[in-house]
Records
---
Amino acid sequence: MVAQGEHPATLAARLDRLFKSVRPGGQREYTYEEVAAAIRENGISISHTYVWQLRKGMRDNPTKRHLEGLAQFFGVPTSYFLDDNSGIEDQLELLVALRDSDVRSLALRASGLSPASIKAVLGMVQHARSIEGLPPAEDDGDA
Amino acid sequence: MRSWRRLRRRSLARLAGFEVPTPFSIEALCAQVSAARGRDLHLHPLPYTGAADLPCGLWICTVEADHVFHARGASASHQQNIVLHEIGHMLCDHSLADDDNGLTALLGDLDPAVVRRVLQRTRYSTPEEQEAEMVAALIRERAGWGTAPPRPDGALGTLDDVFGDR
């Protein structure tokens, strides 16, 4: 389990973060079967059991193709699994905040922001929520 | 030039039925917009972060209320123009559904299709910023500000008949 604001270090923790952040329609998580089936459609051989084992940390030997398939499914660069990617973590956190805060719209004039600015926008979304007397957005759906 | 006229015409239609308050002030306009939308409108100064690329204005629309964040320390007229631009977004009813400007700036490393799926958006991409700016310009015109900065004495000029060229 990775708390809000911390960056998961292991493959299992990063995959866990993706399952929790990237939920279709902001509802339930994708199932292991859905993930594996979608990756197989791209010609990469993978089983739902193996995806589950990777997330639980029981296996940590995926091939490059497996990582590419998982990254593509969850919409992140493959390097997310390999490098220190705090910038992508910030974006996932903001995506979750936008989803959980029921932000309908957000507009700004910018063509790409630094991690510091992305953190600032995350703070503004949270501030907007607190002004409205609603609880701050949760990082994941465990509660 | 033709596309500018089309933009202006579309923006005029967006403003149809919206009364620009007289005497004009940003506060009165915000109250008017809030009443027209039937929801609270909060103005906040942008937090100071030291990040050079933080935009000077940001509109966040939640299910409950509208929030406009504007740069601090900008001149009064610059600050007003920032707020006007964000109000332009509101009056155009821009939503994440048809605006990818904010999202791609914020979530540029994530696959837009995946972002859409998470936020349950189906459409993506139109020149929202231009439209917001045009609506802001039209409000300035109706307020008698023209394209010039607001008058320091707050006096209003003659109202242009901005609906005249339909």
---
Amino acid sequence: MIFVVLVAELLSRRPRYARLRTYIPLLWGLTAASAIGTVVLGLMHYSEGGFDGGMAVRHRNYGIAFALCVTLAALASVVWRDLYDRAIRIPACLLALILITMTGHYGGNLTHGSTYLVELAPQPIRTLAGLAPERPAVTSLQAADVYLDVIGPMLANRCVTCHNKDKRSGGLDLTSHANLMRGGEKGTVVVPGKSGESDLQRRVSLPSDAEDFMPKGKTPLRPEQIAILQWWIDAGAPAGGALGGMKLAGLAPALSTQLGLTRKPAATGPAAKADPAIVARLYEAGFVVRQMSLEDPLLDVAVYSPGHDVTDKELDTLATAADRIVRLDLRLAGIDDADLKRLDLRKFSKLQVLLLSNDRVSDSSLGVLADLPQLRQLNLYGNAGITDAGVASLSNLKQLESLYLWRTGVSAQSVAKLSAILPKVKIDAGESQPSRPAQRPMKEAAHVRGS
Amino acid sequence: MKDQDKFDPTRRELLKSSGIAGLGALGALNLLSTKALALGVVEAPMNTGLLGSGPLRARAKRVIHLHMLGAMSHVDTFDYKPVLTERTGQELPPSVKDSQRISTMSSGQSAFPIRGPIAKFARYGQSGAWVSELLPHTAKIVDDLCFIRTLHTEHVNHDPAAKFLHTGFQIAGRPSIGSWVSYGLGSDNRDLPNFVVMKAGPQNGVPIDSLTWGAGFLPSHHQGVEFLAAADPVHYITDPKGMERSERREMLDALAKLADTQYRVSLDDETRSRVNQYEMAYRMQASVPVVADISDEPDYVLDMYGPDVRKPGTFARNCLMARRLCERGVKYQVCFGMGWDHHSNITTGLPSQCRMVDQPAAALVADLKQRGLLEDTLVMFGSEFGRTSFIQGNIADPRFGRDHHGGAFTWWMAGGGTKAGLQYGETDDFAYNIAKDPVHIHDLNATILHILGIDHERLTFRTQGRDFRLTDVHGELVKGILA
């Protein structure tokens, strides 16, 4: 607000913007109101405790002075308009500017620590300001220091805005190992060797809406960070020591991420998310689409509501996602050789599971399957058109694990022959056999999709 | 921090209560946009469920649970203990019996005489699993099964034990596991419900009510739908005489408009859930008669399930129906086989119950297997608890029975990425206490969800101020049974 006043004052000196003068009392009034409100809230926060040292007192005093200053200026601009124009305007603006700057500076010190201005400055300036040399960048997990490089920075990032030398919320200062171990008003927060009894551990592990949760009102620590903290406390909460000399208890990847040596695991990044446009398109075309898992963005696609024939248009949409599909379930969907040709299975290079049971596929479609290098499971049961001739072309599928041939036209001899060629493949030609290879098609409802 | 009292609010509290806080306002906006999505302004892919995909790679897509309601005796069927035969008539040693809670039906007995299994046992298959002669068809498929001998539960009465098994809590009202699965994973068939329940067997035994497959606090369209043996497989599925399907359609459209108006005022999700169910029922009017009509099943398939399969409403027919529904993508099914509560006359009652379920259950596994469906379907066979190795009644009276026993009982599983031919866990020589690898009901439920690709600790629903999950704060994954 005060800056709006200043700008208005400056501009209104020029004849062109002289009209702005009318609004200046109003602007001063708004500034005063917001300043007073802020002071009241600030005093309430101050009275909650947790602040000691001059920093907070100075922030408070300058803040009050600023509020007084703008309140008086506002009064003057309304009541003694002539006096204001002659003698008050310029000094009031300058004083308010100085006061808000000082208030802001001390406020900044409170939340960021009193060294925040020079922290990132070159080392000579840091030395002048009395700061220790910065830690060298960590290059290896083994050489990194457990406190100075891992725990300390973690606390510095997430906790010290409220728990520092000047603003010791709960009487707790987390800017150094010694201060951390000293604890707060309620006693120690870290019991070396016993994370279960450490208040710090308890509070960061709570659900974020719990009363005692820390960091209050902020994003919770990541699960790996909580695990690292727990591991450190259980290891005796040491003040330092190379990670190389400690048992990492499976936390090496998490520590590595924390140290910035590896990027965050892909699972949390957008890389692991299947392209939503493709998913939406397939869904629209009547397929159920799922990611293989949260870590694996490849797709598991099935006909939604088996029993309805898939249309050519739907197949074309399916083909657009060919290189992303790991599991393709086209059971009971009226798929025939022309459909498979239209799909061009060769493009499905990542396909591991292909379910074509109870479709209308025949021998001529099987040759192309040899070009699917990752195919593990192939289900052809219920396709009467598949015979010994077609099955012979499956003998190249060395990587196959299971093959289903029940209710096809394939003979027992042919199955035995294929078994001999592919001994590792579990071939199931069915337990209950008809006396004749009758193929009664499964009856299904009329196409009701979209009704 | 200083002591605070009512008249001295902190800054944070003042901001919160006065509604100045921008965060609160943002939260409300966020809520509104979610509602806008639900209103159909932007249609969310409802069929993929809350999770879209589970956090884990799914081993199975579907589950069929054959629940032997009333509690099948594990002592006489799967958990073979020769010591029981040797010691028949002797008192169950207090060191074995003492620690466990038993039901009030036998707790007043003056003696607890042991009775060995009422039928002969033999080993079958390459896995060498012991199975009683009461279950000859199951014996033939043991190499496809994964036996868990160490299921246990705290409950010794049917209703709390069944509720606990299906909903993770002994008192009615929590969502059933099938509802959780539907909520988490969504649907694979828009024309059929995700969660189906069927019942068969003697109706004079232990009752079971629909809260066992209720949706609890989850949106109500996730509840289990009961399929019946009657001419209408689902209640009121057929339109009344003289009503055209187009009229039904018009009625539902008008109803949906009214519901939408209501929803815009109340923002109550249940309004939409109800419309969802009306629409599902409408689609089921076309889809259910087709699934229920088994005339396309060849005789050699029907024969696998045994003669009962030709009668609607039998356990055998329900097993066949379960396979047909499973083929069409129904995610979770429970087939109750009723009538296992053998407090008396176990020597006649148990064999007839076994005849009812043995062939159909074994046929279901074999039929799924030859269709390739066992690769991604988990079949489970088991009760809410087991029965005691001591008898209920008088040892001299042939009408003796066995009482409820939650301390250890046997289930089998097949498919869904479980280890075929495995015997998991061991009980003591009396089939009474667990000697090795216990599996609690919460562990079982955690494992079923895991098999479906769901982390049981992460599938939660917030209601009444806390996040609820199927396994509450319990449940350890039983890694040992996973292939």
---
Amino acid sequence: MNEKIKIIAGVVIFAVIFTCPLWINMGKANEAPVPVLSEKAKAAKTCILPKDEMRAKHMQILDGWRNSVVRDGQRIHIVKDADGKEKEYDMSLSNTCLECHTNKAEFCDKCHNYASVNPYCWDCHVDPNAKKEASL
Amino acid sequence: MKNSKKNNRREFLKTAGATAVGVAALSGSAFAIGEHFISSKETKTHPEDLKAVRWGMVINTKKLNEEVIHAITTACHTKHNVPDCQMFKEPATKKEHHEIKWIWEEHYHNAFAPDVEEFLSKKLEHTPFLVLCNQCQNPPCVQACPTKATFKRPDGIVLMDFHRCIGCRFCMAACPYGSRSFNFQDPRNGLPNRQPTNPAFPTRMKGVVEKCNFCAERLAIGKKPYCEEVSKGAIVCGDLGDEKSEVRRLLEENNAITRKTSLGTGPSVFYIV
């Protein structure tokens, strides 16, 4: 019988210690950051896809862009917008995405840091706006 | 007893085989995992995209001099953010000198080794040659690359997908022309203020190989390579597959040689001597 009490006590202590990160941090979650749109992006109103789809799929789109450009030599993406109108985009991270989303820190990095993802895009690709600021 | 064991093993293998087939069928093509493509119906090329059956280059060494060579290498390297090897020597990085180069000057006896005659004409011995990736028809680097980061396009350009390069340097061992350079350190260390000299073009990262890309990014928007643009007529790029092209006319009218022809790589860069 003594063993039974010891075992139960041990299990309870283990459970408490094991779950402590959960209950210590309960209710203290950082608010998810909201990406800030640059003036240019606001003025454009639509991105290549609706906002929710861009939020969920931008990494797949960028991966597709890089494959199309490098492998197939196709550089223009034709997208139909909500009204069925065709729009063309030069498939370039630095020259198309960041042309509109001029605020990489507020638009890209904020969420990536929060979600702890480290895309290595910027090891090679250039933020054209950072260059402008540096030379000013 | 022995029999039943055998049967068990047989049954097990059967089930395992059937499961493997099922899993493979359900998951589709396994190699496609993690790769995304834009449907070709949704993409197109630039209207002014320059096309060729086989891209090639003719370098007229008679028109090369120090000034032209400097203009060509500078244009190519600054426009493609190729790091300046001199800057790696700076005490800040404390790294040994190493070179990254896409196009550079070489003497005849180096560029055309081992097919160099014993008694060369003075002119040939002192003529500066410009060497770069030969965009081989039968590229050994493409065969060597284990990740297909280096590949040959249908128009003959041997291109690198820097995203896929794992830095194994097999391609460098395979290339008989030394056309490839490896980034032993962050190439941005070799750029002024660590800033790209041409912000519209990416830099590379530490641990990838790089080489001349025949200005694929310029051909795609209807422009000829940078080297041709500043060469004052010393370099002509064009379609080797088109009999009426300027490059074919030059090759018909002049004596032209290629580097290490006997290796059978089929270089697309010709030198008028």
